[in-house]
Amino acid sequence: KSQLVIFSQSYFQEMMRQQLESSMHAELEKLLDTSTGAEREVSKKDFEGFKNIFHRFLQVKGPSVEWIKIQRPPEDSIQPYDKIAARGLPDNVADSLNKLVVVKLNGGLGTSMGCKGPKSLISVRNENTFLDLTVQQIEHLNKTYNTDVPLVLMNSFNTDEDTKKILQKYTHHRVKIHTFNQSRYPRINKESLLPVSTNLSMTGQNSEGWYPPGHGDIYASFHNSGLLDQLIAQGKEYIFVSNIDNLGATVDLHILHHLVSQPNGKRCEFVMEVTDKTRADVKGGTLIQYEGKLRLLEIAQVPKAHVDEFKSVSKFKIFNTNNLWISLAAIKRLQEQKAIDMEIIVNPKTLDGGQNVVQLETAVGAAIKSFDNALGINVPRSRFLPVKTTSDLLLVMSNLYSLDAGSLTMSPKREFPTTPHVKLGSSFTKVQEYLTRFESIPDMLELDHLTVSGDVTFGKNVSLKGTVIIIANHGDRIDIPAGSMLENKIVSGNLRILDH
């Protein structure tokens, strides 16, 4: 009898799944019928990918990992960077570089920093944007080694138009720039699990009905764009993928040499750069061994009972920087075999009108388990310098870093290699506001920790050392005078400066 109950339950669930799936397919067809021509064709391709992820979403039961099966990666599967670099570089660096394509993930907007348009167009240093710095870095490589490393930008429908306008300014630079677009997937109603859009347009009420499905979409959209085949035909072998806002993600010749010098049967198809966790990185995805394969474990996949264990710096010592080196031929093979397997990230959102929706996304690094001879390389922290907030922006605009050919490097004048911990309060969140609060960026060479809260401004040539905490209470305003030197100070209320 109990078997019968279980059978009828699973039969009922399967029927429900099939019904939801056929309703979804019918709705997608209706959406396609609201458009014609090229837009319809692009959306049709996008929807094939969406049907696949939606099908898998309906199949998933419970967590995607069984905690008991998680093992530490074998020693040789995460190599220290020093060991890779110790092999030195060959005489023909140009040969390796000509097999490389640099891909930047450029789908994000600058909204979290109070900016309109693509995040990559925010100025980060001496009027240079993220995109300017990227172009300068690759141009420098191409000129130095007389090579032809192209730059590929993966845009989203949010960033494509603005990015393409700006690309005209690089026509005379020695970098070929290609773009392709991430897919556009429909947001689905949390209750009915059906699309919230009524047609394919991006205007009016429908503008909130669409989303780019995370950077895991790179494999399908790169392949669908035709660019993957084009680059393979040009003799390119590897892509170096990173977030455009990670200023530490420059082309590393040692990692590239390691990849191209492997014997054919042992070719490493996927390298993930990882780095040591600090207390600030407890949420970062980590590498584990699972069912005999290297696998990325994200915090969203961890059962609630084990979240603290996941965050511990002692058990999971490293995290994913999202700097990845991937074989083009392997992407083509796996894409054609439909063999790339990435866990689904279910991202709940509330639209402006209060409607609850769900976005189904994937992450590029999660595909590591589908590639052969995958490897983690434990790189120096300097290769992970993301600018997510104005606190990060303050660091990269300061004298802690020097800029050379688009690359930021820690100033040799700083005595210890760690970056200071900076926390700017909500008055600094938006870039425009942040810029008006600093007459010039303070000297931070000897800073360990800075916390600023409330209505605070900084005059010219301020110097900050050790631990500095500045807190203006509600209704108060603190102006740090020009030329001040604050060392281990707490400044509070009405500009009383206390020793820390």
Automatic annotation (TrEMBL):
Q: Which UniProt keywords apply?
A: Nucleotidyltransferase, Transferase
Q: Does the keyword Cytoplasm apply?
A: no
Give the Pfam families listed for this entry: UDPGP
The residues the record assigns to binding substrate are 215
This protein's record includes keyword Plastid: no
Provide the E.C. number(s) assigned to this enzyme. Answer: 2.7.7.9
Q: Name one GO biological process term.
A: UDP-alpha-D-glucose metabolic process
| Catalytic activity of the protein | alpha-D-glucose 1-phosphate + UTP + H(+) = UDP-alpha-D-glucose + diphosphate
MF-aspect GO terms: UTP:glucose-1-phosphate uridylyltransferase activity
Q: In which pathway does it act?
A: Glycan biosynthesis; glycogen biosynthesis
Q: Where does UTP bind?
A: 119, 182, 214, 245, 388
Per the record, the domain of life is: Eukaryota
The UniProt similarity line reads:
Belongs to the UDPGP type 1 family.
Assembly state and interactors? Homooctamer.
Q: What is the recorded function of this protein according to its Swiss-Prot or TrEMBL entry?
A: UTP--glucose-1-phosphate uridylyltransferase catalyzing the conversion of glucose-1-phosphate into UDP-glucose, a crucial precursor for the production of glycogen.
Name of the molecule in the record = UTP--glucose-1-phosphate uridylyltransferase
